[in-house]
Amino acid sequence: MPQQRKGVDRADMRQIKKIAMASGSAVALMIALTFGARAETDQPTAKTDAQPAEQGAVALAPIDVETASNAPNPEPYTFPNFAGNPSTSAGTGTPADMNDAASAFTVSGQEVNQRIFSRPAEALEIVPGLVITQHSGDGKANQYFLRGFNLDHGTDLAIYLDGMPMNMPTHAHGQGYSDLNMLIPELISSVDIKKGPYFADQGDFASAGSVHINLLDSFDGQYAKATLGSFDYLRYLGFGSIKTGEGNILYAAEIGSYNGPWAYPDDLKKLNGVLRYSQGTALNGFSITGMAYGNHWNSTDQIPERAVSEVGLFGSLNPTDGGNTERFSLSTQWAKTEGGNAWQANAFVVRSGLNLWNDFTYFLQNPVQGDQFHQHETRTFGGANASYTLTNTIAGIPTETEFGVQTRFDAINLLLTDTQNRQYLSTIRKDYVKEGNISLFAQQTYHWSDWAKMIVGIRGDLYAGSVNAVSQPQNSGNAVAFVPGPKGSLILGPFNKTEFYMDIGQGFHSNDLRGVTVKVEPTDPINRLQPATFLTPTQGAEIGVRTKAIEGLNSSIALFGLDAASENIFSGDAGDTQPSRSTRRIGIELTNDYRPISWLDIEADATFARARFLGYDYAQAATYYSLTGYPQAQIGNAPGNYIPGAPAFIGTLNVQIGEKTGWFGGLGYRYFGTRPLTEDNAFRSPATGLLNARVGYNFDNGWRIQLDAFNITNSRSDQITYAYGSLLKTDSLYNACNSSTPPPTSVCQNGVMDRVLHPVEPLAFRLTLLGKF
């Protein structure tokens, strides 16, 4: 391994920065920043400055960075993301100036795998303030919460895996649906994190934030990993790489099963595989990656609180709920650098399918056969993206100019039907959808001095699509929309290892195309509906500070605000659109990473947010008064400005101890604060605190044994909570609504309001053995 330089003089520093600008490389730029700080102080100033992960100061993850390098080539190759968002080699761990906001930074795959998580998607809780949970079986996309957003299954959080977008527009279940159950965390090289609509290379779904997951290219051997645990949890994983010619072939294969603590077992069965060929370096190289994934499961959905005494906390009101899914993808990435010019490009094609059976309201709509429904889709989508970066000097000011183009096209077959015990009853709607977009962006960076940088960016997004509503032709149609997105950032510093950031920008999220062309209610054509807008603009601002003034401590604080013109939601359960008012969120986010000594790492993050609707909800007021005289239906339906599910506080504390070999351990605590569940705040969720622990031993030969414990306090709180109306056959309102003299129609359509919950899974253990061959 090359010996580290201890210091760089200012002339060398300017040359390194020049190289970094010319290459457009985040790796080179971080080297410049790191060496620059050392040139001024000649002392380690942060976690990775003091103990570079490459040297194995702390290797608690299943794979340390030395293992995950591109041996024998000493330079790990991880491709830049497609649109000017370059990734870094594993082991960065420190926010880099190239991210241009106090809340934006990159973490290594090693740091991700040091966290204690029970589901693949929970690996992304490495993002400060992000909560990832589940309410309906471990094959369904997770629920995401960030910065005062209940992001449902991914709306307003853009997620990319190896350059491929994971968010699904016009999805059978929910707009922006992002299923990360096929993620293999051990393959992660780094994760690039950005929050807010301030970045010209980020588009749809990225208003709250974006997460780019980058994959490794090789390992220094072949590995086998086996995990067994409580509630019939099994996971077998084989992975490794083979040097072939000038490149590397990486492979991984995973088999998993799980029943869970539920009265009706999940019976989850998962198959997963990755095959990847890569060649070259981050600046001049390419990769080709194939992925295949399949999963099927039963699900215990959330139940009303009044039903817990009937079916038990881990029981189900419809044991036939569940689903199956599959995903196949082929992607490629390419990068080339010549002098001061840098090219990046990628392309991908994906084939996916999904079937979901859910029953959330029981006997509200169909008092005899129940309210179970089936959501089905098959989708083929593909896209290509490219960017070009060049350096120049304008009036003596060093600049970088970046241009980029991003494209995507989806062909989707969608079906929504009523079912009973997964058997077909009737069609609600059937659609063939074609949706495409092209986006152009440009940004100019000015380095006014050694301590002042300004970025000005602009992007434009053009969307077009068509809906062939087979079951209700009146809802067919075409739509075209364009939205501009100006951006701006000002970065000052460092001053005493402290930097200041000011960011502002306009973003957007797309809405389900069926909700854009809808004209009548699918099940009642007489009832006309108000279409949603195709592209909903958002605008946000952030002021932040990032500092390493205290030795070993890396801290940041960000004040943020975000407005959305509307939060139109297409209800896949009902087949129509549900427009909402405009919203405003303001908050503060604090992150801290402290490593006082080589074998101890402490991370503490906290996010406070205030989320509210703007204006008055006249439609909700009319609904509330229509329910007068029936308090069991009326409660929770008063007009108000609370946003259901929006978290006001999220906090995490993670402690890791250990060296590269020998004993290691960790504790992880996540606090998910109480949330309003209705606009009038009549129903609220409980707060949920989860404490996980890990202990293990790393052997000199690369083998590892570890024991993970989840929910070690055996909390009985909710994993996720809602409040809405439903009907059970044991409800007095059920009998009244099906009598000869029923209450008003609005009452029977609303049902009994109740807190609806999915419990935290009880104390569980998992034992893992990792072997190197």
SSE layout:
Layout: H1 10-23, H2 26-41, H3 47-50, E1 105-108, H4 109-114, E2 131-133, E3 143-146, E4 149-150, E5 157-161, E6 164-165, E7 188-195, E8 209-215, E9 222-229, E10 233-244, E11 247-258, E12 268-280, E13 285-298, E14 303-304, H5 308-311, E15 322-338, E16 341-358, E17 373-394, E18 397-420, E19 423-449, E20 452-469, E21 477-492, E22 498-510, H6 513-517, E23 520-521, E24 524-528, E25 535-547, E26 553-564, E27 569-571, E28 576-578, E29 583-597, E30 600-613, H7 618-626, H8 631-634, E31 649-658, E32 662-672, E33 688-698, E34 704-710, E35 718-726, H9 732-737, H10 745-750, E36 752-759, E37 764-772
Parallel strand pairs: 5-8
Antiparallel strand pairs: 1-7, 2-3, 3-4, 5-6, 7-8, 9-10, 9-37, 10-11, 11-12, 12-13, 13-15, 14-36, 15-16, 16-17, 17-18, 18-19, 19-20, 20-21, 21-22, 22-25, 23-24, 25-26, 26-29, 27-28, 29-30, 30-31, 31-32, 32-33, 33-34, 34-37, 35-36
Helix pairs in contact: 1-2
Characterise this structure.
- The protein is mostly beta strands and 773 residues long.
- The chain has one domain: Maltoporin, Chain A, CATH 2.40.170.20.
- Helix content is 10%, strand content 50%.
- It contains ten helices and 37 strands.
- The protein has a 22-stranded antiparallel barrel.
- The radius of gyration is 26 Å and the shape is globular.
- The two termini are 23 Å apart.
